[in-house]
Specification:
two-stranded antiparallel sheet, 37% helix, 4 strands, alpha+beta, two-stranded antiparallel ribbon, 2 helices, single chain, 87 residues
């Protein structure tokens, strides 16, 4: 997938950077645990939610077991010259 800036943490200054795009592949544990969280964050961002609303919703979904807990041994990897990680 291509990860966007909102996959970053809440304190990351690049959270809303529209240029950021990071091609990334996930191993099976990451596909089962990390990827659903990123998809949920993306849906919230596309729905126009604020950064605080996104993080509150994700935290609530994790607490209510609507999203899987982050698993052990999750790995994301990829290198691409088409990626844009920062200026």
């Amino acid at each position: 997938m291509v990860e966007r800036s909102w996959a970053a943490g809440i304190d990351d200054p690049k959270f809303w950077n529209p240029k950021l795009r990071s091609p990334i592949c996930f191993n099976p544990p990451a596909s089962r645990s990390y990827l659903p969280m990123i998809i949920a964050k993306t849906k919230l961002v596309l729905a126009g939610k604020s950064k605080a609303q996104v993080f509150d919703a994700i935290e609530a979904a994790l607490d209510q077991k609507e999203l899987p807990a982050l698993g052990n041994r999750t790995i994301g990897y990829m290198m691409s010259r088409d990626g844009y990680l920062s200026p």
